[in-house]
Amino acid sequence: MRASLVFVAGALLATGCEKAGPTASGKLSDDETELMSRLPNNVGLAFGGNLPRLQKHLADSPIMKFARVGNEMVSGTNAWQDCLAEKKFKNMLGTVDVRDGFELKFLMTGLDMDDLVGCAKHAKMKYELDSDNKFIAIEIVGPNIKTKLPYLVLSDGAIYGNYSFNISGGDVDFQETNRTQMENEIVATKKDNATHNEKLLATMEKADRKMGMWFAGSAEEGTLIGDKVHEVFGSLDLEGGLDVDATVQMADKRFTGQVMDSIDSARDSARLLGPELKQVLNGLTVKRDGDRIWFKLKVSNRQLNDLFDKFGSMMGAFE
To answer: Is 192 strand, coil or helix?
Structure first.
């Protein structure tokens, strides 16, 4: 799951419209709508993934090699992810709320409790499993981190997860969620849920949801960048390398111009750092269309390996 979070964050950082624009998946499928009906309404961002497609390319991705170095600080994380990568995921969909700390809620299909227990054992992670086999809390331990990640099996077999934390003074404070809280959250979605959030659903329709990972939403309400960024949507894929396609709607045209100028300046500066970075920048397309900026980055695995070989040690990886 940590890798999923890395991908979502990476897509947002690389974020974002040539008039041809990104490929929109359009109306949500019945399966996607069903998953959204178990998630909260008042959130700004949704994310998901074509997990079978993503799993197919994970093993060959230099990005995963890089992520694994950071994961080593959290006991068992790499073994946990390796184990999950062998399971038959079907779908994943979640929401992110950053108005008061960080809260991520998500649903996965294709897995069952036996898969989670088996992977926890494989990774030698401590866990607590309820006697009815419907709830598990897996312990995560690392530098300045000790928390439990909860998973609840719903009546139709879908698995519900909930991670929450606050950052204060550089410290991360995880908020552990128990079974009763999670069950109450699911009950609450019977009255009000994300399928009632027309603005979010409309943005989700613009994303290419067949790709390995995708995100869609708005930073407009209750976020630190809401005065500068409104709608965002895009995707990330690992087939043969890294393929990021994202669109950002700017709140202020003046700020849009500043972003474009900053990108041009970054290109000029980065070229001084060598051909490896220049190759990556050659794969970046940035175009403006009114108040929207479209970012397209396509880099091969070979180019990523070259980049990490040169700069990895600066980032604490690839000694």
So the answer is: coil
